[in-house]
Design goal:
Layout lengths: L1 E2 L1 H11 L6 E5 L3 E2 L4 H5 L13 H7 L4 E5 L3
Parallel strand pairs: 1-3, 2-4
């Protein structure tokens, strides 16, 4: 799975009325390689969220605790 433009837009919408301080995710979500999510998240097009979603959740949605549930 990846967090792309549509998922980023949905997260931003829910963030208006929901606190993402403590967040749980199913599987370690990758950040989509496209720079399109940067536009909806008000980041410069060259901003890199790196390989996984962690920076997206901590920087944009101010999550201080991220629990990841995944099977390895």
């Amino acid at each position: 799975m990846a967090i792309s433009f549509s998922e980023a837009a949905l997260l931003k919408y829910f963030n208006r009325n929901h606190n993402f301080n403590k967040t749980a995710v199913l599987g370690r979500q990758r950040s989509h390689s496209s720079k399109r999510p940067n536009g909806i998240l008000n980041k410069p097009s060259d901003f890199d969220f790196e390989k996984y979603h962690d920076l997206l959740l901590t920087d944009i949605f101010k999550a201080s605790l991220i629990d990841v549930y995944d099977i390895r």
